Structures are given as structure tokens and as C-alpha cells.
């Protein structure tokens, strides 16, 4: 089944999924205030360890009168940094197990609720990711995703295969790339930290350099609600390397999270005072 999906994707993906590229390049994604400086930024982060360096950097405070339903563990940090209203949201801890609520379901729910409540001009999905040495990724590299796709929604039925893959273009930021000299690569999203053979085949077909557990779901929500979104991913582990993923991830998490925070801080500094079209 997986080989069939890969063949279909290789032949049809680029042309058929073109409409989803509006998440990056189309005028429809630009707000009416595109000629005005960006005012409100939503930074979605899946893990608390990834969020706290930025909370401290921007001197944000936790929202004690939450904009979210009282029943959910979702957390918002907010504050003013330079000329920007910055919001960091993360899904919080699972109410039963006490671990970060990672994955596409939490990401979709929290990003949707955050956009509805906060009406951001721009979304930044920042997080750690696995990287592929075959595509040039190294531990600590920070990538801006050019395209995002899913690799674990396999459905070989006509057109549903492409819906499952869900390739979407990130909002293009040529000036950020030029100024900060970040790497560029495609991002593939799934709900597992490890990689089975079926996932590997579709990640390869997606031409992905990095893999995560939320990006493509946030791209989907951003496209629905017409908000430009960019994806900043720092590599904690080499998926096609010779070290166990869990071991390498835990070993590098603290250092790579610091690199991620630095990159996002630089991006926010660049964004300050600029309009969407200047990114």
C-alpha cells in the first residue's frame, strides 16, 4: 500500500497540491493591514522546555485569566516586546500523565483557539525536530521550512492520498533568510517520535529535511483561517544516523532548545517594525 501511495505522490503531488501553496505565497493570505507594521505575533510551541527560553527572553507573563476554556491545560504567555504584542501558546501538560501534550491533535486545537482569541498577524511555529543527514542536516541546525506535509496519513484512494499528504507552502520570508542566514528545507509531520518503514518512504517522497509532530497541522489551521505562518525547526537528532533517536534527542535537547530560542529571538527582532510583505 505504501509503495502505491509513494508512486501516486511522486507523479501528482506538485501539480495537484498547488492550491495549498496559498498558505505561503498568495495574496489571499495577507491581512487587510498588510501595509501596516506587524502588531500581534502568535508563537506556537509544543513543549514547555522549548517555550521557557523565549518566555524569559521577551519577559512574558502567564495569562492567569485564560482566553482558553477553563477545562483545558493550554497555556498562554504574553507581553509587549519592542513594538510587538507577543503571545506564546503551548498545549500544556496532559491532565492524566503530566507530560507535554505533543502531536497534531493538540497542535490543531490550540492553534485554532489561539487564532480565534488573539487574531494574530503572523504565526510562528517554533520547535525541535529530527533531521536527515542525507539532506544535509546536522545537530543544532535551525531550518525555516519551505513546505510542510504529513507522512502518517496514508490513504491510497484517488485524491485522498494527496489530501492525506497535505502539502502546503510556508509563508515565504526571503528577507529573513538573507538577513539571518538560516537553512531552508521541507518539513514532514507525524505523530510518532520514531520512524517506521512506511513513514520513511513517505518522508523520502515528501523530500523532507526535517520531521516534527505538529507543523503540518498548524499549516492546515493557518490556511483555513487565512493567517500567514512560518516554521522554525532546530535539529535535536539525526533520524538516519547511527544513534538511537530517544537517546540523541534527550542528549541534545537543552543545547538545541537554546539555539532555537536564539533563532526565534532574531526573527522577532527582524519582524519588529515591518509589515508582512517585507519579510
Automatic annotation (TrEMBL):
The protein's name in its UniProt record: PNP_UDP_1 domain-containing protein
Molecular functions per Gene Ontology: methylthioadenosine nucleosidase activity
Stored InterPro entries: MTAN (IPR044580), Nucleoside_phosphorylase_d (IPR000845), Nucleoside_phosphorylase_sf (IPR035994)
Biological process, per Gene Ontology: L-methionine salvage from methylthioadenosine; nucleoside metabolic process
Feature: compositional bias, Basic and acidic residues: 1-10
Pfam families reported for this sequence: PNP_UDP_1
Annotated spans, Disordered: 1-30
Positions of the Nucleoside phosphorylase domain: 40-268
SUPFAM superfamilies: Purine and uridine phosphorylases
Transmembrane segments: none
Amino acid at each position: 500500500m505504501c509503495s502505491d501511495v509513494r508512486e501516486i505522490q511522486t507523479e501528482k503531488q506538485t501539480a495537484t497540491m498547488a492550491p495549498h501553496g496559498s498558505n505561503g505565497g498568495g495574496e489571499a493570505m495577507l491581512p487587510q493591514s498588510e501595509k501596516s507594521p506587524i502588531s500581534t505575533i502568535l508563537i506556537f510551541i509544543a513543549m514547555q522546555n522549548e517555550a521557557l527560553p523565549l518566555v524569559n527572553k521577551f519577559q512574558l507573563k502567564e495569562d492567569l485569566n485564560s482566553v482558553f476554556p477553563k477545562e483545558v491545560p493550554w497555556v498562554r504567555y504574553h507581553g509587549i516586546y519592542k513594538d510587538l504584542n507577543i503571545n506564546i501558546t503551548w498545549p500544556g501538560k496532559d491532565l492524566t500523565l503530566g507530560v507535554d501534550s505533543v502531536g497534531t491533535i493538540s497542535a490543531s486545537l490550540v492553534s485554532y483557539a489561539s487564532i480565534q482569541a488573539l487574531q494574530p498577524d503572523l504565526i510562528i511555529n517554533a520547535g525541535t525536530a529530527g533531521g536527515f543527514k542525507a539532506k544535509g542536516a546536522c545537530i543544532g541546525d535551525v531550518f525555516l521550512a519551505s513546505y510542510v506535509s504529513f507522512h502518517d496519513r496514508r490513504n491510497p484512494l484517488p485524491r485522498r492520498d494527496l489530501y492525506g499528504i497535505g502539502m502546503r507552502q510556508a509563508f515565504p520570508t526571503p528577507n529573513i533568510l538573507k538577513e539571518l542566514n538560516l537553512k531552508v528545507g521541507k518539513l514532514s509531520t507525524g505523530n510518532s517520535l520514531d520512524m517506521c518503514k512506511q513513514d520513511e518512504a513517505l518522508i523520502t517522497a515528501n523530500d523532507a529535511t526535517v520531521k516534527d509532530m505538529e507543523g503540518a497541522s498548524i499549516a492546515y489551521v493557518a490556511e483555513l483561517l487565512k493567517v500567514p505562518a512560518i516554521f522554525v525547526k532546530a535539529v535535536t537528532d539525526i533520524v538516519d544516523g547511527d544513534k538511537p533517536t530517544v537517546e540523541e534527542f534527550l542528549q541534545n535537547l537543552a543545547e538545541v532548545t537554546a539555539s532555537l530560542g536564539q533563532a526565534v529571538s532574531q526573527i522577532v527582532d527582524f519582524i519588529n517594525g515591518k509589515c508582512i510583505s517585507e519579510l
